[in-house]
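Notebook entry, structure prediction.
Reason for the run: the old model in the group folder had no record of what sequence produced it. Starting over properly, with the input documented here first.
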Amino acid sequence: MSEADLSVSLASDEDRNAWNEFVESSEKAEIYHRYEWRHLFQGVFGHRCYYLMGRDNASKIHGLLPLVHLKSSIFGNFLVSTPCFNYCGMLADDPIVRSALVENAGSLANEVGARHVEMRHRADVTLDLPARHDKVSMQLALPDSEDELWAGFTSKLRAQIRRPKKEGASCEEGGIELLDAFYAVFSRNMRDLGTPVFPRDMFAEICDRFPEQVRVFVVRLNKEPVAAGYTLGYRDMLEIPSASSLREFNRYSPNMLLYWSVLQYAIREGYKIFDFGRTSRDSGPYRFKKQWGAQPQELTWHYILREGDELPKINPANPKYRFAVNIWRRLPLPIANLLGPQVVKHLP
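New structure, fully documented this time:
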């Protein structure tokens, strides 16, 4: 394709079907590339979204770049593809299309006053841009049966999985009807970590828009929810974007039963890969996921920066935010749940 044959424009709701058709035709697409997420970011968080499309003279789509505009006095002004989740950057195979999308994203950043554009790639995307490689995705190749998976675990891991069952814990699997129990565990755990919580409406929206892809898991002990998570399935991969457990029940290892139940479901449904999610190498979460047999897959986040700017450091590990994290941990849960969604919507 030549540059003369290509034009980049902003998608509208009228382009939804064509957008999703291109997504489904691409081997590198993530579920987060689907157009439905635009309405979630706009409706739940109130963000402006700029969904860029590269088309030829016959209006055939050759590339996509969904961008969400985050702007606040605390965290800054930037465009992300996409916030809240780990994977969803540019979707284009042709280098001319990729170049055109980068150029238009840079121009858009200048128009809206954004300091940078962040594109979160799981697959290897060749772009002549600054990049960050400090995060990995922990992925487990799944066997055909849970017996085979179980046999590959260490005796220590098997004992940890059995422990909550011996205490009477059980794991329930379902859909949106389990959302309240999930959110009770999730919001409390986020407060304890010093992290603003996503609004419940976000999870309800995901359940509503992707009912076939979402499953919610809740571990109960004496009928009380003590661990919970939700999964998103797409093609041959099952991902767990959010999972939490209550600290006071850690001695019973309810999170081990949670993950084992999710893995059983993944094998039962025929998924080939289980994605434990993003983490930093050699961190506590990295070692937790590694013990299940998960292997690190390097992530590449590309950036369009203003001249002279460094890669952004908007994360809890940044000393700039350490004081705020410590204060947040001390907030009463109702206040944290009230304030959290107002803060977290500005975080990438």
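Summary: The longest strand covers residues 61-72.
The old model has been moved to the deprecated folder.
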